[in-house]
Every structure is written in C-alpha cells, then in structure tokens.
Amino acid sequence: MSKVKSNNVFKKIAKGLSVSSTITASTFLHGPPVLALGLTHLFGRNKSIDDTTIKLTNSWLNVNNWLIEHVLPETKWDIHVDDQLELSMDGRYIMMCNHQSWVDTTVNQYFGVSRMPLTRFFTKWELIFIPFVGQAFKILDFPMMKRHSKEQIAKNPALKMQDIEEARKSCQYLANQPFTLLNYLEGTRFTPAKHAAQQSPYQNLLKPKAGGLALALNLLGEHIDALVDMTIVYPDGAPGYGEFWLGEVPRIAVELHKIDLPEWVLAGNYEEDAEFRGKFQQWVDQIWREKDQRISALKQKYATQ
Length: 305
What we know:
InterPro entries: Plipid/glycerol_acylTrfase. Keywords: Acyltransferase, Transferase. The protein is of the alpha/beta class. It has 2 domains: 1-71; 74-117 and 178-303, no CATH class. Helices cover 50% and strands 14% of the residues. The protein is built from 10 helices and 8 strands. It has helices at 3-38, 47-70, 103-112, 133-139, 150-155, 158-175, 192-198, 210-220, 241-245, 274-303, and strands spanning 76-81, 92-97, 119-121, 123-124, 144-145, 179-184, 226-233, 251-259. The chain has a 6-stranded mixed β-sheet with strand order 1-8-7-2-6-3, sandwiched between helices. Strands 4-5 form a two-stranded parallel ribbon. Helix 4 links the parallel strand 4 (123-124) and strand 5. Helix 1 packs across helix 4 (133-139) and helix 6 (158-175) packs across helix 8 (210-220). The radius of gyration is 20 Å and the shape is globular. The mean pLDDT is 88.
C-alpha cells in the first residue's frame, strides 16, 4: 500500500471514530433527560416540559449539524427555497419528500433544525420496543400507528378505523403546537429495481401512495401554514449512511416549494368517497410529475458541472 493510500485510510478511520464517538456521547447525554421527561406524560401533559423535551432534541440535532459543517466540509450543499415559501420556527407544516437513502432524514434535519419546527413522521407502533429510539418517538409525539395488513383488515374491517383513530389521537397533540410532519409518499426508498418492478410512470420517482398524505391533510390540514414539497438530489448517486458520515458525498442539492392547497382537498373523505379519492390521486400525480421534472433538471445541471 502506498503512503498516500495509507494516509487516506488512516484519515477515514480517524474521521469515522470521531464522528461515531461524538454522536454516541451526544445521544447518551441527551437521551436520558428526554426519556425522564417523557415519563411525566403518565401524569398529564405540561407545555413547559414538552418545550424542554423539544429543546433537548434540537440540541442533539445541532450536535449532528455541527459535525456536518466542521467535520464534513467536503460535502457541498446547494439549498434553494421557493420565494413563495416563508418558513418559521413557530409554523405548522406538512412536508412531502422523495426517498432514496437513510441520509434523507439527516438532510431534512440539517435543513430544518434552524428554520422549521421539529420534524416528525408517521411510524410503526412496533418501533416503540426499540430501546431509546421507540420511546423517543412516542415522547416527541411522532404519530405511531398499529398498521394492519390488507388481509387482517379483510377479516376484521374495524381494524381499518382503529388505525385512523390512532393517527387522529397522535395528531391532536401536534395540532396545538408548531410542527413539521414529514411524509415520504413513495413509502420506501427508491432503487432501480423497485422502479422497474412498479413500471413507474416517473423517471426519477416511485409511484406515490396518496392515502398517507390524504390522512395527514384530513387530520391537520385546517391547522397548517403550508404544504411543503422537499426535493433531495444526490448528483453523484444516492449514498449510504456510512458514506455520508465519512465525508464521501461530494454534493447534495435540496429544493423546497410551497404547494397550493385547493379548498376541495380538505373537504372530502379519501377512504369512503371513490370520486374524491380519484380526484385526489390525480392531484398528487400532477405534483409528482412536476417534482420528477425538477429532479431531471437538477441532475442535468450537475451533469454539466
């Protein structure tokens, strides 16, 4: 092994150790207080305690962001926010985003921690059993749903309404505070294999699952300041989580746009009204086609640089 390669390997190992040890130390510093404060939910909600919990969580995110800015200077960020979109830490937002990598959530947090309220997303109830992570999701009011399979719902239709009711209860807490509720409409990470299997009509995206967005808008639409579309592009290919933290992602492009919300969107019943469901799906399809075009334009821009 040449001296140059040896030095590069050493630098990579050193960077990996410094990043992982810092994130681990930060998690052990911030995690126990969050869990301890979460136990107070057993005796009722207290706004000052909830605010403290969110501040601790944002402090943990800020440590990660400090690492990104000071330990990963190799990564160049190109962030653009539509002029029509005014963001505030006191705002209430539903956000949709394309999904390619576990890094997407880190990108979202890097952008949002100083510009938007803490980002939550719908997650599975089963995650509650993962130490620290599951409990933190519950304490921070991530909507947690006991998602049942189509087969289970077919045998017991009441389970479908149980899922919706669980989501409704979770969203009640969000409606009374600033929030950003994130929805990955594709439902899974984009891969060429999944794209081919779906025979997706979009060049850069999987087919969107409109039901999750419809549910979020039904539960929270009257409370939000904006419906936000975030587009993430990795010009050099979607990275793994380890690649990102080792500084092996040269460029990340992020664009945010405000989506106009027609009045009819909040007035229908997606689950029960087939006509409304079809109209809603067409509306989402148009949003997705415009997003697909933006991704193609960004890829073309970076291909010439």
